[in-house]
Amino acid sequence: MLGSAAAAMLLRNLIHSALLLILSWASVAAFYLWAGAEFAAFAQILVYVGAISMVVLFAVLLTRQNQVADVVIEPASRKRATTALTVGACLAGILSAAVVASRFPAAAVTAPATTVKLIGLELMERHGAALLIIGVILTVALIGATLLAATEAKRNPEDAP
Amino acid sequence: MSAAALTDSFLERAPLALRDWVVNFLPAPLQWLGHHLITIIAVLAVFGTFFAFTTIAERKLLARLQNRLGPNRSGLPWIKGLTLFGLSQPFADAIKTLTKEDIVPAAADKCLHFLAPVIVVAFSLMTFAVLPFGRHLIPVELDAALLYFFAAGAATELAIFMAGWSSRNKYSLLAAMRALAQLISYELPLILSVVPIVLVTSTLSTQNIVLAQGGWTFGFLPHWFVFTPWGFPAFIIFLVAALAESNRSPFDLPEAESELIAGHLTEYSGFKYALFFMAEYFGLTALSGLGVTLFLGGWQAPIAALQFIPSYAWFMLKLIGMLVFFIWIRGTLLRLRIDQLTRLAWQFLVPLALLNVGNAAFWILTASWSGPLQLIRWAISLAIIVIPFILLGRTLTAGYAPRTYRYAP
Amino acid sequence: MTPLHLCLLISSGLFCIGLTGALARSNTILVLLGIELMLNAANLNFIAFWRFGPAPSPANGMIFVLFAIAVAAAEAAVGLALIIAVYRHQKNIRLQEANTLRG
Fold this sequence. Notes:
The structure holds three protein chains of three kinds. By secondary structure, chain A is an all-alpha fold. In chain A, 69% of the residues lie in helices and 0% in strands. Chain A has helices spanning 2-10, 14-34, 38-62, 78-101, 116-125, 128-149. Chain A is extended and about 50 Å long. Chain B has 13 helices and two strands, in the order H-H-H-H-H-H-H-H-E-E-H-H-H-H-H. Chain B has helices spanning 3-7, 10-23, 31-65, 89-99, 110-126, 145-166, 170-201, 206-212, 231-245, 270-294, 311-332, 338-365, 372-396; strands at 216-217, 221-222. In chain B, a hairpin with a 3-residue loop joins strand 1 and strand 2. Chain B starts with a helix and ends in a 13-residue tail after the last helix. Chain C is mostly helical. Chain C has helices at residues 3-24, 28-52, 60-90. The longest helix of chain C has 31 residues, at 60-90. At the A-B interface, helix 2, helix 3 and helix 5 of A face helix 6, helix 7 and helix 12 of B.
């Protein structure tokens, strides 16, 4: 997971980085499976591998600089890269030190039993308002994205995920 | 014979008994592994041969529909005169593709070019894991089986993109983008047509969905979801979307043989091409299996008196029926244009599928109606879907008429 | 080292990779993808605390993750649409060159 993510951020070929990132998202889903969150894992694969990856790849191909050459992008300036690396390394150090130093109360031995039915009931009852808001956000995002990306009056239905 | 005896009859249990018998030969620590391996091998073997005979059935049936004979020459090697109606054709085809030269374009992205067919076959096989083939035959019992099915299906889009891009051929890339546009457009009606089932059965597990369709009225009217006013439109939408998802005619634009060369598969040859071909049929079979499971009662017998036939036989029969239906459609309908294709999905199928979800909600709300109210329930439910269907169809086809041909005098 | 520690280390690693990528790269698409990685790291934490945390609630962590995934999808769609719109104006998606509003 970490390896593919790091490689994705380092590679110069944009398509390769996008594909590696998809691999990294899929391994996050594998982690969810390992942790017993089946539903979240499948949702992650469906949304990230099925939808977001497609939008990303479409965007990469639609914004190519020159049609013939490879989709290679020039590296950022040296100064920016070093600053970013320093910030990232510092943050990594601080976070891992904090994690290692902290003591957590004993974990539950078994995974919380979660059936799909339970998730559905929770979503509808306790988190009903949040579900409504998410629905509105997704609809607005869909319409907004198509409006932003549309060129002519006739819109392109594939732009939305 | 009582119902309990029927559900546990010897034939029903036979595959499981066979598996347990084999597993018992293994040492105890390896038994769980053998258990799963045998399941995987069984699915691979059954659907491998099923795929082989689907191809020959398709060629023969298409030939019949077009008033031809179809392949009828291949027989057994070294035996002259025995042609077996050409039934060994798929094996001859397999040998041919295996021995063909595998050409990789010089400029291609070798790694991705190799990975694409592998991924597409692997993921299309993974979808079989949650289909209940019989009363006791389901490879994996998952609580979120439907979600798993669609998640595994989502990876094929990625493989198509990889195939198109790694070929380093602009026609491949363009065709891959077109194929993706089609797949994404039809994913939405496909999933929306399944939502009513989930609403009514309130489960995502395929086995429970099949169990919910058990029972008969008067002993011969099965309680399948296709025989409900919300299930029938959902089934039709599902069929159309499944046709488009598996790139079958009339939605086979991504690789329209007579217009493009092979779309995103242009640069593939030999065994890799065969893998794509295989994945396409596996996808079609899996989607048909899902359709059978969701709408046609899965492994349930159509008539109560026919329950003595084992459940997996019913599932296979229904599956074959679905595939023959798909082949029939391929032989009958003409190919669509790409703009007609996307318009059909976004302007017609998606609104109808959304309405149908509402229809299913109405069906649940009125679950307690009985007697004459039952008739009113059917009428309202039918009206919810039929009236918009007619109105939408009218508005979308307004201004179109059958083409009139004018000939020079 | 409990499983929770391990999960938190992994997710902080993922977060830092995302952050570094978002800061270092000049291609807007990659910056957006770095942000997506950071979101994923946060989701990992939710699942880790839900599974290995002290007081496991039936489904809270999972539901939070589901909402986060939905928001991430919306964000990606709008972000990439914005990138395409910018590209149409400037024929370029490098961040440094999108500075026409600078005084």
